[in-house]
Specification:
Elements: H1 6-18, E1 22-26, E2 34-36, E3 42-46, H2 51-64, H3 74-85
Helix pairs in contact: 1-2
């Protein structure tokens, strides 16, 4: 389990950025904390969600998408493996 800190949220955003995804925080009528816009590499996160919901939402999306981990450095690979092992 990862802790719900601003630092870990930043690490998740950096990881998604490395995979070519853009994370945007916006208001809207979200049913969940975040969503991946179909056929794009943009992730919308509800800007009114608390830190815990933001992190859980991004972790859930990272677990669902297929990515090439060979582009990551060793630290980010370890973080990615930790996220993939978490129970969604």
């Amino acid at each position: 389990m990862i802790t719900f800190t601003q630092h870990n949220l930043g690490k998740l955003e950096d990881l998604l950025n490395d995979f070519g995804y853009k994370v945007r925080y916006e208001k809207g009528s979200f049913r969940t904390g975040a969503c991946l816009i179909q056929n794009t590499r943009v992730i919308l996160v509800n800007k009114f969600s608390n830190l815990e919901v933001r992190i859980q939402s991004l972790v859930g999306l990272i677990q669902e998408i297929e990515v090439d981990v060979s582009i990551l450095d060793d630290k980010k690979k370890d973080f990615y493996k930790t996220i993939k092992k978490l129970v969604a």
